[in-house]
Design brief:
signal; about 200 residues; alpha+beta; Lipoprotein; eight-stranded antiparallel barrel
């Protein structure tokens, strides 16, 4: 069911956008494994350094880059308002003029580019999105590329609805899509429901 929602979401995103301009850049990077035979210590110093550099690069790619959206606010097409108050906390209000009810609030992780691809295909692998599938998305629309691929996980600690708290424990929701118009438009979908959102940066 999750995989179906994600596939629908990808198709919806591919068909929904026809404006914005960002040059496509064919991306995607394969994951490579390093096999070493037990008991064999014949790796040269240079090979060991090369392997460490690759591991460091992979570790760096896994880190969230919340600074990309920290301190920004975004308005959705439905009039709702999402704000990232700092590099850890966010809130999503149904109505920007009412901040004490009808909102989600918690912490977030935001990834862009290669970090987003790795997070999407490794950390969120249960959703079944592969690098090959993402490459097909990149190839299907010149606005989409590895460089502007975005992925976010919101860890909601509060969900207020009509004056009542709806959550008894933290709830995680992941989104993925693309940051377009030189970072001024966030085109994302909920990975569980397939619901699509378009946010304009203020």
């Amino acid at each position: 069911m999750k995989r179906l929602a994600v596939i629908l979401c990808v198709l919806m995103m591919c068909l929904s956008l026809a404006a914005c301009g960002k040059d496509s850049e064919e991306g995607g990077r394969g994951t490579t494994g390093h096999n070493s035979s037990e008991g064999e210590g014949n790796d040269s110093e240079e090979e060991v350094k090369e392997e460490k550099d690759i591991e460091d690069k992979d570790a760096k790619a896994e880190k969230a880059d919340n600074s990309v959206i920290s301190g920004t606010s975004w308005t959705a097409r439905d009039g709702s308002w999402m704000t990232f108050t700092d590099e850890e906390n966010y809130a999503w209000y149904q109505d920007r003029t009412v901040t004490d009810d009808n909102y989600y609030a918690g912490t977030y992780e935001f990834y862009i580019g290669e970090g987003a691809l790795k997070y999407l295909t490794v950390d969120l692998k249960d959703y079944g999105v592969t690098e090959a599938e993402m490459q097909r998305v990149f190839d299907s629309n010149e606005e989409y590329s590895l460089d502007n691929l975005a992925c976010m996980t919101a860890r909601n600690r509060s969900f207020m609805l009509d004056g009542a708290e709806q959550l008894k424990e933290e709830k995680e929701i992941s989104y993925y899509g693309f940051m377009l118009q030189d970072g001024g438009y966030l085109d994302i979908a909920n990975m569980t429901t397939g619901t699509y959102y378009g946010f304009t940066k203020e």
